[in-house]
Amino acid sequence: MTHxxxxxxxxxxxxxxxxxxxxxxxxxxxxxxxxxxPSVEEVTSRQEILKTLLKKEELYAPFSYSRSEFNEVYxxxxxxGNRGIYLRDPSLHLHFLFAATERNREKGRLCxxxxxxxxxxxxxxxxxxxxxxTGEFRDKLQNINRIFVELDVEKHQSIAxxxxxxxxxxIRLVRALGEKCREGEMTVFWNDLxxxxxxxxxxxxxxxxxxxxxxxxxxxxxxxxxxxxLVKNPVKNDLSTQESVTLITGPNMSGxxxxxxxxGLCVVLAHLGLxxxxxxxxxxxxxxxxxxxxxxxxxxxxxxxxxxEIKTLKNVAVEASHGKKCFxxxxxxxxxxxxxxxLAISKTTILGLSGFAGSRFFISTHLHQLKETLDLKSDSGVxxxxxHHSIGTRYIECKLEQGVxxxxxxxxxxxxxxxxxxxIFEQEGLNGLLLLYGLVTK
Length: 442
What we know:
Elements: E1 2-3, H1 9-17, H2 23-32, H3 40-54, H4 67-83, H5 92-98, H6 100-123, H7 135-150, H8 153-162, H9 167-182, H10 185-209, E2 215-216, E3 221-226, E4 237-241, E5 245-249, H11 256-271, E6 280-283, E7 288-292, H12 305-321, E8 326-330, H13 339-353, E9 360-364, H14 370-373, H15 385-388, E10 391-401, E11 404-413, H16 421-427, H17 430-441
Parallel strand pairs: 1-7, 2-6, 5-9, 5-10, 7-8, 8-9
Antiparallel strand pairs: 3-4, 3-6, 10-11
Helix pairs in contact: 2-10, 3-10, 4-6, 4-9, 6-8, 6-9, 7-10
């Protein structure tokens, strides 16, 4: 089970890795960033592709092509594939001999195709050896190179630059391309090329933002220098937890949701086989990923905010009860119901989730009463680990300086008892304004 919509992945995260030059590569990129591999071995295989690409400095020399250029050569090859029997017509030579306009148009499009193929071949594939990779990715590189060789791209791009194709050469090339289209070879070629460009695009994002590859182990969850890449001048935090449940407190505006998004993003990118926005990360491989941040009412299904929370929690609990290792984030859990209800069911939820060894649950809460209800200490987790299983506490630091709240956005061990609502209320002059108005109306 994977529920990561609340990370706004397509809207906010995908653009960090999108350096693709055409829609096919863009679609391949989106698939790569939406299909989480089912095993740590496959995740590691993805990492190896990216690590090998990142070692090739020459791949990142300035190079680009226009979308219109790609679209024109792609449509041209597709058009050749649709011509069918026309290409095998023995009178084709005679036709091109007398149809100067059509002949010149065919020559021009062939020239554009071979020059394009040569450019990407020189920029990317002449600098890579397929045997440096393994498995399916190696096979795709080999197939791309095979097409380049069989079409003799280097020779024909030289002719193309001089625009000196003869009628016989034009007919031979369009027939060769037509045959490859009918056999499905060109479809495979474009798909392989697009997938390669998607991987290269991801590596460019990793390189640009200086992300680092995580390590998978069963030694708990440890992230050093964690931050959210969309935050300008972010405050970096360290997080290390062996507990199943980590409760996060802090006043409003202290950055709890941003912290949870950062943790969730780091874990999801790791499971996609990508590098993460942190200086180091060690984590388990989870079977289930669920991130619930800023949940909204599900109007289409008729669920209220509270029912959406309940359904999300139940889905995770069911998976965990079946022995799955779960990673889940719940932001301000049960804020969709009254405080009395929220307190009672939060206690049950936290104690229940803490019993799932191997899973990691991060819960931010506005319920300060949980500290006493769960018998939590201010500077760590629960007092009695045996009774309460595995619960830890962290808070986002906020200091009062001359009565003014100062947000540091630093993650600390323990529990925050700071309530700044009344302070801000007073700072904005609402006490005086509303009390005065109340006295006047009386």
